[in-house]
Amino acid sequence: MGYKEAILVTGATGFIGGWLVETIQLSRFAYVRAGIKSWLGAARLSRFPVEIVPCDVLDKRQIAQAMSGISCVIHCATGTSNVIIQGTRNVLDAAQECGVKRVVYLSSTEVYGNVSGDVDEAAPYQYTGRSYGDSKIEAEKLCWEYHKKGLAITIIRPSAVYGPFSKDWTVRITRSLQSGNWGRFQGIGDGVCNLIYIADLVSGVLLATQNQRAIGEAFNLSGPDLLCWNDYFQMFNSALGLPELRVIRPKHVRLRTCLLEPTRIVAKFVLAHFEDSLKLISQRIHPARVTMKFAETTLKTSLRAEDLPFFSRDAKYLTTKARNSLGYKPRFDIATGLKLTVLWLNHVGLINRPA
């Protein structure tokens, strides 16, 4: 079957990139080429007859080769600040040189910073000092620069994306809920929960690749529900069949978070410099192994310092522009999305079952 369009997806081993490649391939939306940094994460993509190519966004030669014969690039690759900023510059350079007709860049609603109220695409950038959001702002600025040079660009700003394969809003929350370290965070988890199920995000991105009105524009994409984070935690908890969540008071949350944050910083340093030694100690000394496992679980399943302002943020990201210009219409409410997510969690063995 011949295709009218060939799409390259960068960051194809990631959560969003992987979903895009699978959807494009299974729906025969277009010919799809999966750009990956390392073959170690390619097992998921290898289930399909998809062309997989090396495409480290910091390697200009690989990018140029990956773009050969490509008409559209969906740039999903993310990582460190350098990967987000310099990687985006490299992708845009290559797209311009290779004559790519369209680039769709996956940004984030984090570019708006710590805002409140209704937020549409006209809201200004707001730097917060957090690497991810600030780097996305710089990457977006590069996109607008290249658009002025004649490159057809669309920017997609998703809210929090959940669903199968999501590390942040699915796997991490699942483990936290099962650990007993999570709860309804009184006065902290009452911020607006702007969630989007991954299939709805993919649908919105693909609409943007086809619509001429999308060129030179940015679009917020979020789901159909409006609830607070505590309600999401409770719904997710119930979907997992766990006991009722306890209410955790603000003072306790902040105290625990403040106490754990220095430990988190030290743990990152120790792992970066002494990981091999720690593994050896863990293998040889059982009490040390138990202690390390407990510390790891506690750190991974407790609130982080950056969670406090995020879960308190009273902002609603409006999708009116995407609905009117792209015909975007989210199909998965949170109840449905969680049912599908829990089925996947069960399938891959991430739900703890009583012995």
Notes on the protein architecture:
The chain has 355 residues and is α/β, with parallel strands linked by helices. It has a domain at 6-158: Rossmann fold (3-Layer(aba) Sandwich), CATH 3.40.50. The chain contains twelve helices and 15 strands. It has helices spanning 15-27, 60-66, 81-98, 131-148, 167-179, 198-210, 229-239, 250-284, 286-300, 307-312, 320-326, 334-347; strands at 6-10, 31-36, 51-54, 72-75, 102-106, 117-119, 153-158, 160-162, 184-185, 192-193, 195-197, 217-221, 227-228, 247-248, 315-317. The strands form five sheets. It has a seven-stranded parallel β-sheet with strand order 3-2-1-4-5-7-12, with helices on both faces. Strands 6-15 form a two-stranded parallel sheet. Strand 1 (6-10), helix 1 and strand 2 (31-36) form a beta-alpha-beta unit. Helix 3 (81-98) packs parallel to helix 4 (131-148). It is globular, with a radius of gyration of 21 Å. The model has no long low-confidence stretch (mean pLDDT 91).
